[in-house]
Amino acid sequence: MWTEVEDYVYENRYSFAGISFLAGSGDKDFAQAPMTEVMTEEQIVEKYGKAALFASGLIVDTRKQGFRDLWEACQVAQTPVEYRGEVSDIRAEWIRRFSKFADNYFEGDLKETEYCLKDVFLLHKWTKVQQNLAPVDFVSQLETKKYTDVDTIGSAACVGGACEITF
Description:
The protein is mainly α. The chain has helices spanning 2-11, 26-29, 41-48, 56-64, 70-78, 81-84, 89-105, 110-132, 138-141, 150-157. 16% of the residues are buried.
């Protein structure tokens, strides 16, 4: 199958500006992946069971435990101990809780636990976006014409003499 994909891409290489090959779970494996699926509450509970209802504490604590985000926390938690390097006590406690959550609700499946946490996180984030959306009255916003002097634009674009503007 991959040989067919390789052949297709090569034969049509001039038709592509860029191409990415993500795993089927790509939107969960990469922070800020494009076109990330956001599941509803019902879909999350149907997929992961009621355990998803208890995931928020772990999600919130990733920042308190010194991780950059949930993606980093899950990656560190699933790195084998011999490759993990030195881990602070506070991070080690989150990793212990993550593993215990996996044992209690996902039969020890760390990847399924990770995807559950990420799906709950993404739903929360999407809900916050929806709550903060406000309609924009473009007519009133565009009533007054605003002009910017070309010297202002030129100076910003050519900082350090990197370019010339000629007319």
